[in-house]
Design goal:
By secondary structure, the chain is of the alpha/beta class. 28% of the residues lie in helices and 22% in strands. It has 5 helices and 8 strands, in the order βββαβαβαβαββα. The strands form 2 sheets. A 6-stranded parallel sheet has the order 5-4-1-6-7-8, sandwiched between helices. Strands 2-3 form a two-stranded antiparallel ribbon. Strand 2 and strand 3 form a beta hairpin. The longest helix is centred in the middle third of the chain and has 15 residues. It is globular. The chain starts with a strand and ends with a helix.
Amino acid sequence: MKKVVFLDRDGVINKLSNIKNNSQSPKSLKELQLNKYIVSIVKYLRSKNYLVIMVTNQPDVSRKILTKASVEKINLYIMDKIKLDDFFVCYSQNNNCFRRKPNPGMLIDAKKKWNISFKKSYLVGDRDKDIEAGNKAGVKTIFFFNKKNQEKNKIKSNFKIKSLKEIYQIIK
């Protein structure tokens, strides 16, 4: 079975856009800014034989704020730029949707597709719903406190980091 590091997109892989002091997902490639170190971290994880898979909620599509094509364009750019193995997206805004974090559906879909061992895997997220999804799936969780976190981490995670560089000390 394979081991994987699941990465949340907005806030972990890329910076949140700060439009009128409202932190949000980038709406276009022009707004997309990758987080510092993410390219080298993914390269490091792959050198340690981890698959690297992005899992992202993108409810702005169901809210009609963004098109599915725009999200896919951003995701494909990220996948190519940082060399992800795969990505999974939930477009629903309904927290009862099994694929939408805080539920583990996207991780379970990835497990089926890639033959993943959750016991050997990690999830890195910057919101409680990311950590909750990882906990429900049974992967080790890493909460990333970044400059844009609006919430305090209330869900128990295995690790807490303030810099993505700390991943090097956790995942070996």
